[in-house]
Structures are given as structure tokens and as C-alpha cells.
Design a protein that fits this description.
Helices cover about 0% and strands about 50% of the residues.
């Protein structure tokens, strides 16, 4: 339940945008219907599976899953096998119908960690988009067809996990259960939070939960607790039968709006203090939540060797194991907030940087204040870890001078491509020598149990982040693919970054390019599947390394941003000045109005499928040498599969509408649109692109890039085939 990033929009954009997207999809339908597309997972029913059991679920998708041969599940303790579908025999010349519903058996070990897992399918058409699966402790009960009124309430015995779908407008699902007098039960909903990573779910559910007696009286209700999902707790004064009702707050519905409700009387841990721990060390923590003893404590132990950053781990409470709780793992010094008042510059706690402070806003309108000494021009970074780990705190930071006057204020932080309620003030520069104070409070002046935080304070060093667009690369035997990696330069980092990849499927080879120094933004990794490659899929690791030229001795490693330190932030080496960063994969999604959005996922999957729409993409030359001001025309030939006559666009840039998402051409090298033929209609298989080097283009040797041939699958998604790697050189004048 501990999402690391905020939710996507759960509301549709203006009507005009919807109409534009609808018309565009209708206009492209005639060209996309004939094309081969990988499956786009829409939902899983039921969406939850129990530990220690095997559960049969149904995957629902856009585009066919016919021939699916593997289900890849994130984490450990969960395996899956496909139930062979019963398919009608095809008549001579008959094309197979799309298979958009597929049974899968998930087997979960007894010691599997509860929580949300990603899964995806491997098929002859490539790897699917990501789906969501919830591992739970209690038996799973799936809704019957008619449970839409109080009189039809589905009878269940608690504890249980109630799974269903808010499948149509005005759909209300009712569940009937018994409770004893004095019994406390909590109902944890996962619904909206399961939809952020679903590609084509443009409007999200906004669930609301009601607890009623059999006469229909509302005893309790819950709306937005964990982002848009409800969490309801209730202690029953009298025993008897009761009803639980779930619906969308707007009375909307969708056949893919699945939900699960964990209903039980176990202790539920919502927060822990301190939130900061070291790997390999047992830490006793104070707990907040539901059905806990007064002043409850427990022990958390993160395995030795765990990388720093955000983790979810259960807490041992005597002989019980809690639900997973969010913690921040660090090797920096830890300061647990001392007792007493330190809510002003007069009572501030003195700290030595770098460190991570583990604190809690104890009271309404409370704040914490910490003092540090800085020299003029010295830079510091302040990162809050709270809401990302399901703390109630919506942090707000102020930097104060010795007189208590604010010199900087900061609210929400940007983490990767998403904005979050946690504050991240990076690279603040002290304006003068002296003592300064960092003040932290809740933006809405709230406080109390559940308002825990970690505050990481460091002296920043140049570093970089890497992002991969998208989360899957599709290959067919004898063809090429391209992976684009984008750099986010931080704290003055200007160096060149060499890209790397491992974990490729058998028969697949890579030619790893680089991200050029200074203004370079994107790099390309070219993949090639051998002609005899079998259908196979594997998750790959993509990372980059750089060796900056330093005028001073190498600084010791500094902590990476908490949200990124295990997936994306560069890490200095203690033995050399080389720094490296793991790339974060982003799945593209179809946003309301026809936009192309991104959401971080755990894996990038490379899949070799069956031969598809294009059998080959060939170029007249792949070694392109340009002098400043010179142009070169590259002839392009497509080998189309039989009866494939859909439009194809040719491009060196990865883009949607007017926005460029990747451009690995060297600085100063551009495509000349009026000197290129990039739209191939019908059976046309011959095109060309002219590359031109600007007169001021800096010299570069053999920058790796690739030419792409794109089929539109819908208004946003493309099926992309790539040329062999293209090496672009800009010569010195």
C-alpha cells in the first residue's frame, strides 16, 4: 500500500479534448485495425490473491493475448501459469479472433510479503503493458452478479478480502457480514491506487465506502484516506448483521474499475517513528494506527545489504507480523528527534550535516526547528520523506536566518516526472556566513500520531538521473529495436554518460550509445534479435556511467535522493571518480484529451515475438559523416509483411504530436523536413530522410542513434521498428 508516487488525475479533461481524442481514434481506426499490437492490460479479476494459496484470475486487455506463454510477476513469492484457453477451430482462410480475456493461476507462497505487485504477459506480439496484482492475507471473495442493492447484499464471513468491479454507472456493491458487540473491524480499499499504471484507463475511479445497518442507516463512511482510496474503521456497540457499500462518488463506472477491500480485525500500522533505519540493524519503533495497544511499539529489521532509499517492511509486534510499513534506509548519521520543545530559533536542535532526521509533528499547528552553520556560497539539499511513505504529513519547509526571518520557502517536490507532497529543496545556497535554521511543519497546520517524517540534509555534489521511455522493447527475429535513455542533470553535472544494459534475452545483442556532454539529453541503445531467436522475454537492467574531470580530489559519496537512490540517482564510487545511475523505466499512458503521459514502473522488458508487420528496415548507409553546414540524404527501404498496407511514419526523433521525447542526434544535427519523405502510405515502402549539420555544430565521433518506422496503434501508442544502429559523426572544420 506504500506507493512511492502520487496518483494520476482521476478526472477527465475538458470536453473538447475528449472529442479531439475520439475523432482521432475514429479516423485512425482503419489503419490501426490491421496492425499487430502488443496487449494492453486493463484489469485483473479478482485483483487480489491470498498468501499460501492458488487463485485463478482473469486478465482483461486491449488487443489480443492469443499465444501468451509467460506471466512475469514482480518481487518474490508469487508465480503464475496461463490456463490454456478453449479456442474454436479456425476454418480455412479464417483469421483468429482477438483473445482479450485470459485465465491465469497465481500461486503465492505462505511467506510472500502482502502488497501490490506488477505483472505483465509475454506473447507472440511482444510484452504487454503493466498490470496490478494485490497479495493479501485473508481469503478472497469475488462479487456475484447481483449484489447491487441492500436486499441483494452478498453474504461473507470476515476476515476476508472482498473483490469486485464498479462496472457501470450507478453501480453500488453491497456486502453483508456479521460482527460481535465490541468488535473492531477495519476496511482497507485499494481501487484508484491500482489504476495509475494502467495504460488506457483515461478516467479513474473515485471510490467511497459506507457502513450501514440492515435498516440502511449510515454508521460510518470514508472517502479519501490513502490518496483517493477509503480506509474505514469501526467498533460495533451491538452485535448483528451489517452492510458495507462501495461505489464511485460520482456514480460513474467502468468494467475495468476493480477493487479489493481487506476486512479484518488485525492491528493495522499506519505510521512508525522513527521512519529512518539502517540496514542490518534491528530498530524499535513507536507505532500509530488501528487496533493497537496504547503506546504500541514494535521491531523492524531491514536485511543487511539493502540499498538506501524507500522500502516497505513489516513490523514485529510481539508474536505478530504487521502489514508492510514505509521506512527510509540510509547509511548517513541518523538523529531521532529529541524530546521537548524545539519549535523556534531559540530552542532549535543543533545538527551536523550530512544527516537524516527522524521526527514527528506532535500537535496541531506544531513545527520542528533545526539549526546548522553555513558559510557564504555553501550549498545544501533538504529532502522530506513522509507522504511518499503514507505519512499524513504534507510538508512545508522554511529556511530562516539568525533573526528568524525566512530566506527561502519550499512546498511540493518534483521526483522524476511526478510532483509529490514531500518537499525537496535542492542546492540552496547560503547568502552569508552564519547560523541558519530549517523549519518543518504540515502545510495545513495538522499534527499528531501519523505525522512522522524523515528529513535528509546533505551537501550536494554533481550527479545525474536516467529515465527510459518506455518500459518495453519489442523485437522480432532478424530485426532491430531502439531504447532511448534521457538524462536529468543535477547540481552542475555536465559530463558524458556511457550507457549499459544487461539481462538481455538469448539471441539479443546490444550496441550501447552514450549521452553526449554539456547539452546532450538523450542516448540510444540499439538492440538486434538474431534471425533464429525464439520467443522469449526478460527484464533488463539499464544504467549509465560517467567519469567527470575533476579539479579537486574526489568528494566522498553523498546520499542520493531518497525516492531515487535505488532506481535512478547516480552514485559516486569511493575508489574512483566514476559515478553511475540506474535508469528508471516509465510506462506511457493515454491521458485524457489524447496526451501522452508517463508513470514509473519497476521493470523494462525486452521481448522477442513472432514476425510481424515489418520484416526489415534497411538504410542506404549507417555511417553518416557530416561537415558543419553539410547535408546527407539517407534512403530507407521497408520490407512489409504480406498484406500490410497501413501508413508508416519515418523518424529519427521519438515524438508524439509536437513534443519530442527522445532525440539522440548530436547537437546541431537536425532532420530537414522539407528534404525528407517520412510518410509512407498504402504499400509504399521507399522513403528518405535528410540530416543536416548546422554550421556551428560541435565535432563528435560516431554518436549512436536509430531511424524508426512507426505504425499508429491508437492516438498515442505506436508500434516501432528500428533500423540498424546509425553512427553520426560531425567533423571538425
Amino acid at each position: 500500500m506504500f506507493e512511492e508516487f502520487p496518483m494520476r488525475e482521476s478526472f477527465s479533461r475538458p470536453l473538447l479534448g475528449f472529442i479531439v481524442a475520439l475523432l482521432s481514434s475514429l479516423l485512425t481506426a482503419s489503419t490501426t485495425s490491421a496492425q499487430i499490437s502488443y496487449p494492453m492490460v486493463m484489469s485483473l479479476k479478482p485483483v487480489a490473491v491470498q498468501v499460501g494459496a492458488t487463485t485463478e484470475c482473469e486478465v482483461n486487455s486491449r488487443y489480443t493475448m492469443r499465444g501468451a506463454y509467460q506471466v512475469r510477476v514482480g518481487g518474490t513469492g508469487v508465480s503464475a501459469e496461463i490456463v490454456p484457453p478453449e479456442l474454436p477451430e479456425l476454418k480455412p482462410g479464417e483469421k483468429p479472433k482477438e483473445l482479450t480475456k485470459l485465465k491465469v493461476k497465481f500461486t503465492v507462497s505462505a511467506d510472500a510479503l502482502p502488497g501490490v505487485r506488477e505483472f505483465r504477459l509475454a506473447t507472440p506480439n511482444g510484452a504487454s503493458t503493466v498490470g496490478q496484482l494485490v497479495v493479501v492475507r485473508d481469503p478472497v471473495v469475488f462479487e456475484i452478479a447481483d449484489n447491487n442493492t441492500a436486499d441483494q447484499g452478498q453474504l461473507v464471513t470476515l476476515p476476508a478480502t472482498l473483490c469486485g468491479v464498479i462496472e457501470k454507472g450507478e453501480d453500488c456493491d453491497f456486502w453483508k457480514f456479521s460482527a460481535e458487540a465490541g468488535q473492531g473491524i477495519q476496511f482497507l480499499v485499494r481501487c484508484q491506487r491500482l489504476q495509475d499504471k494502467i495504460h488506457d484507463l483515461q478516467v479513474h475511479a473515485d471510490p467511497i465506502l459506507f457502513l450501514r445497518d440492515l435498516r440502511g442507516n449510515v454508521l460510518a463512511m470514508s472517502d479519501n484516506t490513502f490518496f483517493a482510496d477509503p480506509f474505514l474503521t469501526y467498533r460495533f456497540e451491538q452485535g448483528g448483521e451489517f452492510l458495507l457499500e462501495i461505489r464511485d462518488v460520482r456514480y460513474q463506472g467502468n468494467g475495468d474499475w476493480t477493487y479489493c477491500i481487506e476486512a479484518n480485525s488485525r492491528p493495522f500500522v499506519a505510521g512508525a517513528h522513527p521512519k529512518v533505519v539502517k540496514a542490518g540493524v534491528e530498530t524499535r519503533v513507536e507505532l500509530s494506527g488501528v487496533s493497537l495497544e496504547e503506546n504500541a511499539t514494535g521491531v523492524v529489521s531491514i536485511p543487511a545489504g539493502t540499498a538506501g532509499g524507500l522500502v516497505s517492511a513489516p513490523v514485529t509486534i510481539r508474536d505478530q507480523i504487521s502489514n508492510p510499513v514505509g521506512f527510509h534506509v540510509t547509511d548517513l548519521p541518523i538523529l531521532v528527534e529529541p524530546a521537548g520543545d524545539h519549535d523556534s530559533v531559540l530552542t532549535a536542535v543543533r545538527v551536523e550535516i550530512p544527516l537524516v532526521i527522524a521526527g514527528r509533528i506532535e500537535t496541531v499547528s506544531g513545527l520542528d526547528c533545526y539549526a546548522f552553520v553555513a558559510k557564504k556560497g555553501e550549498k545544501f539539499s533538504f529532502e522530506v520523506i513522509a507522504r511518499r511513505q503514507m505519512s499524513n504529513l504534507d510538508s512545508f519547509l522554511r529556511i530562516l536566518n539568525e533573526q528568524g526571518q525566512p530566506v527561502r520557502e519550499e512546498d511540493d517536490g518534483r521526483f522524476g516526472r511526478l510532483t509529490h507532497a514531500d518537499t525537496w529543496l535542492e542546492g540552496w545556497e547560503a547568502p552569508a556566513d552564519g547560523k541558519y535554521f530549517v523549519e518543518i511543519r504540515d502545510g495545513l497546520l495538522r499534527g499528531g500520531p501519523g505525522f512522522e517524517y524523515a528529513l535528509q540534509i546533505t551537501r550536494p555534489q554533481p550527479y545525474f538521473l536516467l529515465e527510459v521511455d518506455t518500459d518495453k522493447t519489442q523485437l522480432t527475429p532478424g530485426t532491430y529495436g531502439a531504447i532511448f535513455v534521457r538524462i536529468v542533470r543535477k547540481q552542475g553535472f555536465t559530463g558524458e554518460v556511457q550507457l549499459h544494459i544487461d539481462g538481455l534475452p538469448p539471441g539479443v545483442a546490444a550496441n550501447c550509445g552514450r549521452i553526449l556532454a554539456d547539452k546532450g539529453i538523450d542516448g540510444c541503445i540499439s538492440l538486434y534479435a538474431a534471425p533464429d531467436s525464439k520467443q522469449v522475454a526478460s527484464d533488463v537492467r539499464i544504467w549509465g556511467t560517467s567519469t567527470p574531470i575533476l579539479a579537486a580530489p574526489v568528494a566522498p559519496p553523498v546520499a542520493a535522493p531518497a525516492a531515487l537512490s535505488t532506481e535512478g540517482a547516480s552514485k559516486p564510487s569511493r575508489e574512483s571518480n566514476e559515478i553511475s545511475a540506474e535508469a528508471v523505466a516509465y510506462q506511457e499512458y493515454y491521458s485524457p484529451g489524447g496526451g501522452r503521459g508517463h508513470y514509473p514502473v519497476e521493470t523494462h522488458t525486452v521481448a522477442v515475438g513472432a514476425s510481424a508487420d515489418l520484416l526489415a528496415v534497411t538504410l542506404s548507409e549507417t555511417e553518416i559523416r557530416l561537415k558543419p553546414g553539410e547535408s546527407k540524404k539517407i534512403l530507407i527501404h521497408l520490407e512489409r509483411a504480406k498484406d500490410v498496407n497501413a501508413n508508416v511514419t519515418l523518424d529519427f526523433l521519438y515524438r508524439h504530436l509536437e513534443q519530442v521525447y527522445a532525440n539522440s542526434l548530436p547537437e546541431g544535427v537536425v532532420m530537414e523536413g522539407n528534404q525528407s519523405k517520412t510518410l509512407l502510405t498504402g504499400n509504399d515502402s521507399e522513403g528518405f530522410i535528410t540530416l543536416k549539420a548546422d554550421k556551428t555544430a560541435p565535432p563528435v565521433e560516431r554518436q549512436v542513434t536509430a531511424m524508426m518506422a512507426n505504425f499508429s496503434l491508437n492516438f498515442v501508442m505506436k508500434a516501432t521498428y528500428a533500423s540498424p544502429p546509425v553512427f553520426v559523426t560531425v567533423e571538425k572544420e
